[in-house]
Write a structure and sequence with these properties.
homodimer, about 600 residues, alpha+beta, four-stranded mixed beta sheet
């Protein structure tokens, strides 16, 4: 590690740079970063998903958020990296710290690889550095190319065609839709860099990124052609022929730069929140800085995708039910809450739970893997929002308190995301209260009817109201979109306190996952994946015309997994909430019964 | 009217302008425009509060929104003004229409008086004109100065000192607060042009604008001095001495221009959403374009202001109760729903109601006038959101259906705003249903507990949920701030569907006014004015520390006016809603009883 810093500093000296910044992102600004771009981890040793490392000639520091404070402390202990705890009052920003460190050195240049930050992030960073003391940002150097000798190769999984029976709409039609949307923004073309957007648009899938079935690539859409930039070794003749037939040419991944430089249309749309800084600067034509239209199109699921979701949820439900039955068998036999739960002669731990759940899911047809790393947190671990058990943190389950399991799977016909909080035995009054309040919010959101086009920010309070009344709250969002055999976290719509303007329309998937996290004690979260659908109001049922709102929406619950009623304080639920819960659990049971 | 247009066109020809635009605003961007600046009305004949007139050499057009379509049609019928219905698909924007009209003329310059539009509006307009065909906006000419010969004088009411017992905090302290806020934005000074902000800051009041007790003035705050620009004839020696003692010099109203030109500090903050275009362009120093800090300070009421509100609400409640008793007396005697209600031998009409209500209010101590024009809409008039009865529209009340009354008063110690929907006799099923749903939303919002700092947009759905479920909705906001003997509509916080980021904090007034409007049939709105206060959660009551949210808020209801229970479909109310309503009506009765 010391050597790595020394070699980096040699380059800094040679290039007369005062500091170099390593963000956690890659050229495609995705949620999961392939090993090839995990340079921040390589230089710092910190493995968390979010963090920024900065190295000057004499110091090094790493910024991360509260989720990772403990992990970062441990991982940085024997390094020269200082831990910068984001969100604390005394913590300087990256630009402030750099300015302070470079103040006496006379150095004025700071480096970052422009390929791994978005145009907008680079702009903000450059402005912050300028303000902090006139420092300039240089973006055309990637020192890792020189010093990271055993740098992992770029991922190399074959491209597969996503069958039309699952995708629903041919790629050429989607491309036409995109071109129409671009025309409405007076754009002749666009550069698409988000991997899940490209996979959705072309009906292709791959295994280049963990948990998300995408292909490392860029897509350049011009008025008269479209080119997919992808390592040609990933393309079979069949896939090449398929792409050609959909009107998509192919070129090598790295050639995107040259193609942008020689792009000849009058203008091009690039979404500065998505496209990386280096590619953003390559075109010579006029750049229209707008929102990419693709995310909003992908968010509205077509009939084939919706059918796929329903089938995937059914299989996922069967796996979840088998898992629950397996776990409950163990619970029945262990009532002594001083001894761990054992099943088939083995102690059950958080990691056992993850393995067992994956096993039941993997037995289901069309299973392709998990859609994110399973969160299985027992007791106080349930209060760590992004907890994943490791060999080091794993604990045996005792027959008392809550086990929080947030998990999901990728199937060829759909992606799942579900959280249940399972009582393992004796519960405290507060555990029962919190469980009931979270459940109330969860149900209330599912019961809500709302105007077509409402933004998630407007609806969010419905899931929080019961918690707020008692003094509880949670800081994460209440819901996110879910991809159709794509990323489990999809936008642009979200349900959250922070303002997101993206409207909800018919046919969108969205999760409903309120929670409460009491540090050192326990956590509760209950999550279903929902689908927005047309709501026929009583007014319409009476044959009257709606005014001033023209269309209302409601939620259909896609997830099929019973919600445990044992912890509920029934007197806190309204008749309507109770009736929803009864109906839901009965519906799940009846639907899954034939398959168990 | 024809003459006015001819004279204007002569000026346009002389100045080589293709068109002139008359907006509805004045130099202070206020809600009510003094007669002196009602140039749009003078040139077009249209008297509505919102509209834009445009005159070219050969045509004239007026843009207004759906509230005023019918009125504008009537008022423009015999003029050459075309009515441009805003919000309709086929209606061109002002810039589009001008571009189309000037296309063949070779004229490229369009005029507007820069004193009567804000900097941001002028910027947008200039950009729209540029885009529509390269037209340029000229802002330094006010043709009304030449052609409006009987133009009303500027308002000339004396400035009065708002007593400290009502204002709570001395002006010099408020000025210090503002200077601290400016320093935090790295600004040396600011130009304040909003009349209610100036009146609040300096603890002065006047009668220069209808319904809002403010003084026509500008306030220039520099690091070492503050100057109020106001017609010196309005200032008594006492007021001058008072201002001096608070650290405020005075100068003539028109001298603000010269003072800005010679402003010597390093920079100045100007809020481009408030300051007019002409003044914005006068300073020669650096302009910091930020949000004025004054509105957010004014929004948080101090103890004296809160006490004042409570006293004003009590007196307002007594007046409302006397009015209701007067009306109910008439109702008791008239059960034949084919004959109008008569009281003391006279037919009761909408205008009678307005007069009577004002009379009861005017008998209360400290009464200063209405806080907005009373809305009293019987039956289908209740469905017109901004209806004000006139001689032409006035109708007698019949003993059936709803009378919607939205009214408010200015008292020296507070401003009131209250809406009640009063059943006058037989009601239809739908009238009862809608009344109950609106009431549910109204109560649910008052019952809500929420984190300190939440934005109104997040809370809005709580007032709409019951309506949405049945297919009803309303397009206006759910709530706005209310001034302390100032404007009845105050920001920056609001409760509405459209996103407004301004946070709610302890000590803010806000209305709660959901409604439903069924065109041609009836309207229901129920409104109380609320106060945000600290909410001690059950967790805190149990002695536990809150996490992650540090403070919660709840609403205290300030308005004291019973809510009619006759129309309620009780089975649609929850036990909690019923209990709130019972308690509220009992509380109102007990509080007002000693004064009746």
């Amino acid at each position: 590690m010391k050597n790595r810093l020394n070699e980096l500093r040699e380059i800094l000296r040679r290039e007369r740079m005062g500091a170099f910044i390593f963000p956690s992102t890659d050229p495609h600004n995705g949620e999961y970063v392939p090993a090839h771009w995990q340079g921040r981890e390589w230089i710092s040793g910190f493995t968390g998903s979010a963090g920024t490392a900065v190295v000057t000639l004499h110091k090094a520091a790493l910024w991360t958020d509260s989720r990772y404070f403990i992990q970062a402390e441990e991982q940085l202990r024997d390094s020269e990296f200082l831990l910068m705890r984001m969100g604390m009052d005394e913590t300087p920003s990256v630009a402030q710290w750099i300015a302070q460190e470079l103040d006496a050195t006379g150095m004025t240049e700071v480096g970052v690889d422009g390929m791994v930050i978005t145009e907008n992030t680079a702009k903000e960073l450059a402005a912050d550095l300028r303000k902090a003391g006139g420092y300039t940002l240089r973006t055309n150097l990637d020192p890792l190319k020189l010093i990271w000798r055993d740098r992992p190769q770029m991922p190399m999984s074959p491209v597969v065609i996503h069958p039309l029976k699952f995708a629903g709409i041919p790629a050429r039609e989607k491309l036409q839709q995109v071109r129409r949307a671009l025309a409405a923004q007076h754009a002749d073309g666009m550069l698409l860099t988000r991997l899940d957007d490209i996979a959705w648009l072309l009906n292709i899938r791959g295994k280049d990124v963990p948990c998300i079935p995408v292909v490392l690539s860029y897509l350049l859409i011009a008025s008269d052609r479209a080119t997919l930039f992808v390592d040609s070794r990933k393309l079979s003749d069949e896939v090449k022929a398929y792409l050609m037939s959909e009107g998509v040419a192919t070129d090598e991944y790295a050639n995107v730069v040259a193609s942008l430089q020689s792009y000849k249309d009058y203008n091009i749309l690039m979404d500065a929140d998505e496209v990386n800084h280096t590619l953003y600067g390559k075109v010579k034509c006029q750049v229209i800085c707008g929102k990419s239209p693709v995310a909003a199109m992908k968010a509205v699921k077509n009939e084939a995708e919706i059918d796929g979701f329903r089938r995937a949820m059914l299989r996922d439900g069967v796996a979840l039910m088998k898992f629950t039955n397996w776990l409950k068998k163990g619970l029945k036999e262990h009532k002594d809450d001083t001894k761990p739960i054992m099943i088939d002669g083995e102690v059950v731990t958080e990691m056992t739970v993850c393995r067992k759940l994956e096993q039941f899911r993997s037995e289901q047809p069309l299973y392709q893997g998990v859609s994110f790393d399973t969160i299985a947190g027992y007791a106080s671990h349930g209060a760590i929002v992004h907890y994943e058990p490791t060999e080091k943190t794993d604990v045996p389950l005792m027959p008392k308190g809550f086990l929080l399991i947030d998990s999901g799977a990728q199937y060829l016909d759909g992606t799942t995301d579900v959280t249940r909080t399972i009582p393992l035995g004796q519960l405290t009054d507060e555990e029962r209260l919190v469980y009931t309040l979270v459940l109330k919010g969860h149900i209330d959101l599912q019961l809500l009817k709302f105007p077509d086009g409402a933004a998630g920010t407007q609806l969010d309070v419905v899931a929080r109201r019961a918690l707020w009344e008692q003094g509880y709250n949670y800081l994460h969002g209440t819901g996110h979109g879910v991809g159709a055999y794509l990323s489990v976290h999809e936008g642009p719509h979200q349900i959250r306190m922070e303002y997101r303007g993206a409207p909800l329309h018919e046919g969108m998937t969205v999760t409903d996952e309120p929670g409460v996290y009491l540090e050192g004690r326990f956590g509760v979260r209950i999550e279903n994946t929902l689908l927005t659908r047309r709501y026929i109001t009583p007014l319409e049922q009476r044959g009257e015309t709606l005014s001033p709102t023209k269309r209302f929406l409601e939620f259909e619950t896609l997830t099929l997994c019973p919600i445990d009623t044992e912890p509920i304080l029934w007197e806190l639920l309204t008749a309507e909430e109770r009736s929803w819960l009864d109906n839901y659990n009965r519906h799940v049971e009846e639907t899954l019964a034939p398959y168990l």
